[in-house]
Amino acid sequence: MSDADLLSGFGRRKPLSVSEVNARVRNALEASFGELWVEGEISNYTRAASGHRYFTLKDERSQVRAVMFRGRGDAMRFEPENGMLVVVRAVLTVYEPRGEYQLNVLLLEPAGVGALQIAFEQLKKKLEAEGLFDPARKRPLPMLPRRLGIVTSPSGAAIRDILTVLRRRYPNIEVTIYPTLVQGDDAPPQIVEGIEALDRLGRFDAIIVTRGGGSMEDLWAFNDERVARAIAACRTPVISAVGHEIDFTIADFVADLRAPTPSAAAEIVVGRKEDLLEAVVGIERRMATAVSATLRQVRERLRANSPARILASTRAMMQTSSQRSDDLSRRLGLGMAALNDARNKQLARFATALEALSPLRALKRGYSIATLAGRTDPLTSIEGVEPGQELTLRLSDGSLDCGVNRVEKGEEN
Amino acid sequence: MSAQEKEKTFEQSIRRLEEIVEKLETGQVPLDESLKLFEEGVRLSRFCNAKLEEIERKIEILTKGEGGELKAEPFEEGAE
After folding, report:
1. Which helix (H) or strand (E) holds A313?
2. What ipTM was estimated for this complex?
3. What are the tens digits of pLDDT across the range A16-27?
């Protein structure tokens, strides 16, 4: 075609406006391509103030512009990044003001790794950068947790497992459950509400946020940023227990303590109590040992240096005490070996026995120590005591010299 | 007393108990004083045991009333 031919059209045909050209191209493109699946690498990614995402998809030789409108973009679990290899579902269209064709992206998925995995890594990185995982932020559990708040499904395996452990090993604990969904899109706001409500009540020593095992999708509510922030903001220490040992969630990183399973969360609490019981028993035993050592020492000193009369009165008292304390130590030893459940009851007995060990107190309560005249060992039986013999009774503030009128045999204690 | 304050006295008791036993174990305390310490120790260990055993087992579930206020009800296991 010559220039003349081309020019010959002028004046005879009405030219198209630019807008009309672009509109026609757009119609033609949209009609002939339909929806496409396109794989490529993201570059020039920007998220505009409007919330729309603009980027370029490229491979080794070529590139194409792409846009993802706010609604679609916000529905993504993660935020795409430059260099990320993705697959998009899109319609080919024309941005008429510029006359540029572009992909209108409806759905964007990372190629290779799952979208959830990427979302997880991104949120983890973000919260970590904010310092939310900082060990210094972690609040310790109180020495003895006695009131537990639990945020979970009331019908799930997690609550069942936790209550089973508590019933067996910490029956006197108080538990308050805040029921929530633990999976699906409605779960995160409910979990957040539960954490906040229990925290506001302010009477819990710890809050357990938990659910049983499941797929990464199932556990997703515990990778939600809102849940993570609620845990971080909670003033009550939070134990997270989500899924199985191998499952790590964002909630785990933010929580003050991560338990690998729901049962393990209960065991952490139970362990506190059992450790304390053990500590108290240990201290009692050490006190008893220390006091009997002191008593022995005093007795030695008295034996070496003191006049016979002081020796006699003191020795009687000391012997009683050290015998009791030896006996006590033996019983305490048995107690340590006994099973956890038996321990509680033994403990109560030990405390009573320990108190009895203090000779001054025993005398103050009305007990006395009897010795035969001229003897220093305390009288523990009527064997060998005859009417007419003389006795000395040691009381808390002095002693009485008495005579035996009658010897009567009674029940042995 | 708030839960925190109660907790504090429990933790203080444990710490005091540890102090007492360490003092007694030095063997340098005169008999009179060591009996006094011992009595204090027994009192504290009883207190701690009581704390460990106090509070009745209670399992409750919170439900929301019409006005959004929380109500506690006994939790029946296995029930919805």
Report:
1. helix A308-337
2. 0.70
3. 899 999 999 999
Give per-residue burial for A58-76: e unless 16+ CB within 10 Å, then b.
eeeeeebebbbeeebbeeb
- Of A158, A157, A147, A155, the C-alpha closest to A265 is A158
Distance CA A8, CA B52 (A): 104
**The predicted structure's pLDDT at residue A290:** 82
Contact A291 B34 (CB under 8 A): yes
**Which of A147, A174, A177 lies at the smallest CB-CB distance from B61?**
A177
For residues A324 and A295, give the distance between their C-alpha atoms in angstroms, rounded to a whole number: 12
* CATH code, residues A14-112: 2.40.50.140
> Distance, in angstroms, between A268 CA and closest chain B CA?
16
- Give A130's DSSP letter: T
Please indicate, yes or no, whether the overall pTM of this predicted structure exceeds 0.80. no
Phi, psi angles (nearest 5°) of residue B61: -125, 140
Query: What are the extents of the domains in chain A?
Result: 14-112, 125-274, 363-403
Across the interface, do A351 and B49 touch by the CB < 8 Å criterion?
A: yes
The sign of the dihedral angle between the CA atoms of A26, A29, A32, A36 is negative
pLDDT tens-digit readout, A81-106: 888 889 999 999 999 999 999 999 99
- How far is residue A291 from each of residues A187, A277, A286, A375, measured CA to CA in Å? 59, 21, 9, 25
- Which of the residues A280, A299, A358 would you substitute to probe the B interface, choosing the one with the greatest number of B C-beta atoms within 10 Å? A280
* CATH class in words for A125-274: alpha beta
